[in-house]
Amino acid sequence: MNEPQPGPDQAAGPNQLPGPYLAPGPYAGGTAWPAGPPQPPPPAAAQPQWSSSGPYGGPYAGPYPWGPPPRARWVVPPPTGTRYDRLARTASHRWWRPILGTAAIIAVFLVLSIFVGLVAFVISLVTGVPMVRTGTRLFADPVLDLGFQLGVIALLLPLVLGAAWLLQRRPPGSLSSVALRLRWRWLGACLLVALVAVVLGQVIEAMTLLSAGVDPGFRWAGWGEFLPAIIVVLLLVPFQSAAEEYAYRGWIIQGFGAYLRNPWPAILVGAAAFAASHGYTGWGIVYVFAFGMLMGWLAVRTGGLEAPIALHATNNIVAFGVVAASGDMGSAMEQGEVPWESLIGSAVQFAVFGIGVLIIARKWAIQTVSR
User: Fold this and answer.
1) Is the Cβ–Cβ distance between 314 and 198 less than 8 Å?
2) pTM, entire model
């Protein structure tokens, strides 16, 4: 029987089939195929392990080529394009987080207030500083009492920021603005507008009260009365005002914004809570509520708390400064009836500040959503 002969490009071998498709390889050129059945792969223990040892890592052997997967971050930033009132609705949001955070802030604030009051009482006993046991005042010295009360209110600031980080797992800076921080240049511009608006509103209010036969309360008691009081005011009022804005405009508005798409219910609730926390009556309630509504709207409209903090701090510094100049610091924290004529100056203040802030925000193209 005639066997086919290999061609010129083929090498003959005992286990080689003739044909035109023979390619060179380990079994070409007469090399025999391994005898016996195919061998199984080596056991898993014998397989090589990945190692990250070298110039870019330490010794690591395991199933991951580049080491174990990274741990998930605790804080979760808001999605891109999120409005200020919706910044709390991150990927880590759950329906119970804003409720738990609100309860925790209130409870811890009450405990801290009582604790600080007890500490002040002990210090009074040790140092002999007289205290007042009746009314809303704690210390007989009105300047010391004002500083104590402003400091207690300022405790809200770290509590609100801490609740956002610990309980809502979002950046604390998301309470400040859509840029996840306090925009200092924008805050400075708002302070200048606030100063013009507050001074103009005070002048209009004084003229209106004088025309109605009401004493506006402008007096000068001397530098000895004025300096200690104004130093306390300048040091603590910015923190007190910022704390209230972070609580009533930041936390409440964003807390409701985690559930609702429309910001106005949150603005309304924040303004109502702000008015309820003050002791004003009659037209004074109207003033505080309108102030809260304007601040809430500006926070959403400008994407942050810079404008509300600027007007709140400037208004309080000027108001306390007028009282300090008169030497009547005992009435600095008293809140009650407000004559309706005062609302005319407040309306001018609100209009000048709101319009001025919106004009500058549009000219500067202030960021109003997260990026």
Assistant:
1) yes
2) 0.80
